[in-house]
Amino acid sequence: MNFKPTLFSILFFLLLGFNAQAQSEKRLGAFLAYGSEIENIGIGANAEFPLIENLTLSPSLIYYFPKDFYGFKMNWLEVNVNANYYLLTQESLGVYGIGGLNYSSVKLKYDGAYGWGSSGDYSTTDGRFGLNLGAGANFSIGGNILPFAEVKYVIIDGGQLVAGAGIKFKL
């Protein structure tokens, strides 16, 4: 029995069922983030899709600006699929817990500029899956713009604390 398609089918139908009862406020956003492992700033995009009362599905993407050191260039990309559970929902403030999955891809490239060994160009890429745990808050200022801030810890080799802030647009 192939476990992956079965699990995917179950999750798909559960989400489809939840979506029929979901709240109607969907959001798209953009933000800046800082990653403790890469020690650099990144730009990101996210979305929120209500599933059931107080629970949203929140995919996001973070691209950290390339980091150069001693002829090496590091590129880091994060893809996240989180569930945000709203613990507090007031007119001006929404506080939520974050739990989800993370895929991080890191590419390291050497351009031969420092002459270590041979003068060729080399690169390697590694991708890892991890878990996200964190918290966030939305700050209502009226209208369709919603400032927010989040902090999460990515449980992955070496771990990474990510802090971000930006705006979401209500659709």
Question: How would you characterize this protein structure?
Answer:
- This protein has 171 residues and is mainly beta.
- The protein has 1 helix and 8 strands, in the order H-E-E-E-E-E-E-E-E.
- It has an 8-stranded antiparallel β-barrel with strand order 1-2-3-4-5-6-7-8.
- The longest helix has 18 residues, at 3-20.
Describe, in short, the structure shown.
This protein is mainly beta and 171 residues long.
**Run of helices and strands:** HEEEEEEEE
What's the rounded overall pLDDT mean? Answer: 86
Total helix count? Answer: 1
Residue ranges: pLDDT <50 for 5 or more in a row?
A: 13-22
Overall geometric form: elongated
Widest sheet: strand ordering: 1-2-3-4-5-6-7-8
**Main β-sheet, in a few words?**
8 strands, antiparallel, barrel
- Kindly report how far apart the N and C termini lie: 41 Å
Q: Based on helices, strands and strand pairing, what is the structural class?
A: mainly beta
Task: Give me some keywords for this one.
mainly beta; eight-stranded antiparallel β-barrel; 8 strands
Annotate the secondary structure layout.
Layout: H1 3-20, E1 27-35, E2 40-52, E3 55-69, E4 72-89, E5 93-110, E6 122-139, E7 145-155, E8 160-170
Antiparallel strand pairs: 1-2, 1-8, 2-3, 3-4, 4-5, 5-6, 6-7, 7-8
